[in-house]
Amino acid sequence: MKIQVVGLGLMGGSLCKAVRRYTDHTVLGMDLDGKTLQKALEQGAIHEIGTMETLPEADLAIVCLYPEAAVRFLLDNGEKFRKGGLVCDICGVKSAVVKAVSGPLNRLGVRFVGCHPMAGREFSGFDYAQADLFDGASFILTPDEQTDPSAVAELETFARSIGFGQTVTASPEEHDRIIAATSQLAHVVSNAYMKSPTLQKEAGFSAGSYLDLTRVAKLNEEMWTSLFLLNREALLYEVDTIMEHLSQYRDALNRQDAPYLRELLKEGRLLKEADSRLRKEKS
Fold first, then answer.
1. What integer pLDDT is reported at residue 239 of this predicted model?
2. Distances (CA, A) of 96 to 99, 100, 136, 179, 222
3. What span, in angstroms and rounded, lies between the C-alpha atoms of 17 and 69?
4. Lower Cβ count inside 10 Å, N or C end of the chain?
5. Of 90, 86, 103, which is closest to residue 153 (Cα–Cα)?
6. Is residue 80 in a domain?
7. In this structure, what DSSP letter does residue 23 have?
8. Number of structural domains the chain divides into
9. Minimal CA–CA distance to 235: which of 179, 192, 166, 159?
10. Nearest-CA neighbor of 247 among 235, 259, 239?
11. How many CB atoms lie within 10 A of CB 207?
12. CB-based contacts of 128: which residues, under 8 Å, 6+ apart?
């Protein structure tokens, strides 16, 4: 299979490297930065540089751009994708992207599926791309009523072939509701937590819990601003919910209400233990 990856940042670069490591597929890389393309060639991450002229030859095109740029690229180049070929994006929000491009592409005979690899790092750019980034990770597919079921099946097989541990299918709307809680809220909380003036003097006073909570505060603000605003309603709901829970802890502390505080902490512990058991059962 010939694969063309559009955008060789952390995710696109890692996809190229994973394809090279785990499969016999031919992978082409396409990027606006010539130095990145040359680096990808030199490192063996791609077989050759992809262009708009090679796009119609791709059996699978993977668009690894920020949401707005991904939508523009997909719509502007719909006629260039191979008829009957597979096309997917990997944006972290799905409703806006799928709604904009699924109909137009599928009407052109292009089998489009919105996807989201649940993996990443606190760094961005090709320099941090890793062939094993997706090992054991979850690959989410978000078909709509216009999606060809065969496209979903083929992408599930492809995802597992490059290291993903599981594939999950959800509607674009369900994806965005859940991702607001499991990913986007975590980045908001981590980023806000770093703004405590006390943390500027943390040297020697921090350990694992500090590092765990602050890891994703080191984010790409351009990308995350786009993701947050495109999923605004779902994220606002999660922000309001956590603020409500934080106010409960604050009230317990303010009243020096040990039984209430103990109950709040117990509730959180039990929920975490249940989540850990479920993850263990699925592994």
1. 99
2. 5, 6, 27, 14, 17
3. 23
4. C
5. 86
6. yes
7. -
8. 1
9. 179
10. 239
11. 7
12. 10, 13, 121
pLDDT less than 50: residues of the chain = none
Gap between the Cα atoms of 9 and 12, Å rounded: 5
Residue 187 lies in a domain: no
Tell whether 67 is covered by a domain.
yes
pTM above 0.90, yes or no: yes
Question: 118 lies in a domain?
Answer: yes
How far apart are alpha carbons 132 and 124 in whole angstroms? 16
Nearest to 237 by CA among 193, 181, 199: 181
Q: What is the pLDDT of residues 146-196, one digit of tens each?
A: 999 999 999 999 999 999 999 999 999 999 999 999 999 999 999 999 999
First vs last C-alpha separation in the chain: 30
Query: Which single residue is written with the structure tokens 């999606």?
Result: 147
CB-count burial class (<10 Å; 0-12, 13-18, 19+) for 113: buried
Token output for 54? 């090679």
Element (H, E) at 3: strand 2-6
Count the alpha carbons within 13 Å of 258 in the hemisphere toward its beta carbon. 0
pLDDT tens-place string over residues 243-263:
999 999 999 999 999 999 999
Amino acid (one-letter) located at 69? A
Per-residue model confidence (pLDDT) at position 204 = 78
How far apart (Å, rounded) are the C-alpha atoms in residues 56 and 19?
20
**CA–CA dist 143, 247 (Å, integer):** 38
